[in-house]
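Protein modeling request. Please complete all fields; requests missing the sequence field cannot be processed.
Requester role: graduate student
Desired output: 3D structure, token encoding
Chains: 1
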Amino acid sequence: MSSPQQFPPREATVQEALQWISEGRCSSHDLVSRYLDFLETEGKELGAIVETFEAEALAAAKLSDKRREQGELLGPLDGIPFTAKMNITTAVGTTDASSAMLVGFEAGEDATVVRRLLGGGAVLVGKTSCDEFAMGATNETSCHGVVANPWDRSRVPGGSSGGAAALAGSHGWAFHLGSDTGGSIRLPAAFCSATGLKPTWGRVSRSGLIAFGSSLDQIGPIARDASDCALVLDCIEGADPLDSTSLHQLDESRDPIEKVALVSEGFGSGIDDSIREAVRAAAQEMEQHGVEVTEVSLPQLHAANACYQVIATAEASSNLARYDGIHVGSRVAADDLQLLYEKSRRAGFGVEVRRRILLGTFVLSAGYRDSYYSRAQAVRDLIREGVDHALEQVDALLLPVSPFAPFPIGERIDDPIALYACDILTVTANLAGVPALALPCGFDEAGLPIGMQLMGARGSDHRLLQFGQQWQQWTAHHRELPVGGAS
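Delivered output (487 residues):
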């Protein structure tokens, strides 16, 4: 009589799942099959997963098991399941950026990051929901419906990579590709108690990423812990001939982080007391383990969100101009060309995307470009200089990810100013082009996750991840699962 199937604990990281496979306690095929079951049940109940690729994934998992038997693994992620955000192209399934404008679109080719992961033996199991064209902080603007937070399904999971974070926050064994333009990896990671990295701009190829703000966008991993994120970054980083902005030289320094500075402006008015206290408590924990903690002022932080909104909407307006129903995108029949453009774009784009296109068109228009866009670029230079100067004194900057806890679905969606406030602590890293790592650091009185972020100098991605691994050896916040989520 055969022994019953064994699986890693539900909260197990990718590395722990790999250990189970290497010890023969389960196969990659078993793991992927069981994870697909999770996606088809809880993943879809959360609204996090849009498509699953069962046949392709199980076939790939079988090949991985065969390679393992023959001692011919393709890489450290061989046999591990992963998902891609709906704005990252894949040869299988659709890539619609969660927009009616692209519904049913089949890219027919893999983004560079997906191709590199598949080449390393990782198993693509599905596509995750996101805010439409990655524009949002709540994952309420997806044409596939609202995504729920696994810790409280009446609350938002954060956005725009909310689908990926909801999966990572409620189950281990896998990793997820997200994208971050102004905090879209870090905010949902914090809201769902996952770990997420926004890499240095240019470290990871953007080829195959549907553009929102080209000077801000960056693909990165979301997973259970920093060790998993490091494995993924090792696989996807590096120069790409298909992306002229990808970096050809990467800083490989992995010296330990010994000095961290709290950013004063990240703890001022408007930050929930529970979040302020949790991040300061995290700093005290670091001190107890020999890390020198100081405090610095980054006054440019107050201007970051306004600067970001101008630049991001301007770039969005330019990038989305191609979606006109003729060159790209769904077409609505009309009697004349002008009406065709109007009807197609109104039907294809949601309210938030249209709002950002209009704002971006305005700040780039004649008579206003110098007053808004050019000035925002000058402010961006000051922000970059301020961050660089602060990071000459310390190894990393520490501040919360969000000023508040996950809030109820529907609470902010009709108030753009309140919605954009979600980004006030995250956009600085995108404007400066530096890496930023979101880590779970506690829970509030309602049991909702709290996340902190560490910003490092350009190219210090692996130093941050190495420190994140230390943090997660000292603490167990990332091991927690939502109530009812444990197997």
